[in-house]
Amino acid sequence: MRFLALSALVLLSSWPLESAPAAEVRCASGIYGRYSLPQDEGWFRRRWPSGVRPTGSTCSSGFIFGPIKPGDYEKVRALYRQNHPFLASFILASSGGDVVEAIKIGQLFRRYLIRASAPIRITFPEGGETFTSISHERECESGRCICASACALMWFGAVDRGGSVGLHRPRTDDPYFRALGPTEGANAYRGALDSIRQYLDEMEVPKSMIEAMVATGSADIKWVDADDGLSRPPSLAEWEDATCGSFSIKDENLLSDLRAKHSNFAQREQNLRDQLQNRQSQWTQCRIELLSSNRDKLSAP
Questions:
Q1: What total of structural domains would you count in the chain?
Q2: Does 4 have pLDDT greater than 70?
Q3: What ranges in 112-220 are assigned the alpha helix state H?
Q4: Residue 287 lies in a domain
Q5: How far, CA to CA in Å, does 98 sit from each of 172, 210, 243, 249, 250?
Q6: 118 found inside a domain
Q7: pLDDT > 90: what percent of the chain?
């Protein structure tokens, strides 16, 4: 029998994708998309030891907006190739789309040590939620700025992740699949689902998250946040921390609590806040330089 092709699967989004155009892929707007130049030579050397240097027009962060369709991987690859090794991150805002394209984009992110930011989910005490993007891109002002379904597959490929993504099982519009009997249909679907599982396992996604995706029907959605232990793949996190030291969740929570006080600081608390902020800044800077200097060693795709 013919197994269901993975390319026939589309991860269901929060609204129909069929009539929507393919994703827009470009450099992010404003301060998020370009380098602030000039910088001193030491700043350049720590990031790009080979001697290559960005210009004021070099893209430092990309933006992917809209449904993922066949051909979008090539658009992402072309943007990265034009800006290698300086393009270090992507801002994602997509309701879903083609699984094969999304997996290829995620694999590109992993190979080139790319960070990814999804819109941040904000829940209200009285119920309901909204999403906001760190980039303030004009496309995200409509309130339909999310990263869900196939977009989550791209996000999981990144080496550093921020924001929130939506998970659920894939659906298919393949007429061949609809015509299968129950046993053949289940076998075909499991084969495609196993391919997605294999990719997520390679990206070191916790098995609990993979099972949560499988347990969520294609008409539903489960939101997860980077703060749910998903901000960095475990092996990459340990590799970074071996060079840069660590900044634990306990440290992050303590710093967040101290920042929230705003006033009525005891001198001891103010000193502790300043120490934690300096440590966090040094840790973040070290990781950025570590990823950039290693990206500099890779050939363009």
A1: 1
A2: no
A3: 150-157, 175-179, 182-202, 207-215
A4: no
A5: 10, 18, 37, 35, 38
A6: yes
A7: 57
